[in-house]
Amino acid sequence: MMQEKDKNLFLEAMLDVVPLAESKRTQKTDYGAKKTSESEIIQRVRNKHKHQPKNSPQSIMPNLFKGKQVAKVTAFESLIYHQKGVRIQELNKLKKGELSIQHCLDLHGLTIEEAEIEIIDFLNQAYSDKSRNIRIIHGKGYNSHEEFPALKNLVNLILRKTKNVIAFASTPEKQGGTGAVNILLKAQ
Questions:
Q1: What distance in Å separates the CA atoms of residue 68 and residue 84, rounded to the nearest whole number?
Q2: pTM of the complete model
Q3: What distances in angstroms separate CA 2 from CA 8, 9, 91, one per listed residue?
Q4: Burial of 123 per CB tally in 10 Å (0-12, 13-18, 19+)
Q5: For the segment 8-45, what is each residue's pLDDT rounded down to a tens digit?
Q6: Closest residue by Cα to residue 78 from 99, 96, 65, 103
């Protein structure tokens, strides 16, 4: 039987493998295609926020991308983050998936650009609704054209830089594992 560590290494190595098309032809990859970098994503989101009116729902999240860069994560890495002052009991319940989820967003099938808008709108709406426990399903990135899962890294970046997000953690395996994240928003 394969050990968990070996299994994870094998699955990670197989991320780029795609089945052959029915006609037995291989897919051609455009290696010259420009990849969206983290800094480009940040700049686009900053530009969107500059043009938002002050009373807009998106103005709830000021200074979204100030501070240090966030390291990229792989498909099988668990996400965990919390601000100072979050109670250990709440964090443990979040990690175990024991909190009642009030809203959920599924990003499957979206491009990075579409996902950015959806994530920001979702966080704003949940905060406006005074929700505290929410979930984002970002997937594990098996179909990502990037070296790392694009949507998972986008979610990680936005959540870490959003002031109203006080904690988040990858869900337990039965709720999506490393393909989804439970989020705890600041109380109002």
A1: 17
A2: 0.64
A3: 10, 11, 31
A4: buried
A5: 777 777 787 777 666 555 545 454 444 455 556 556 65
A6: 96
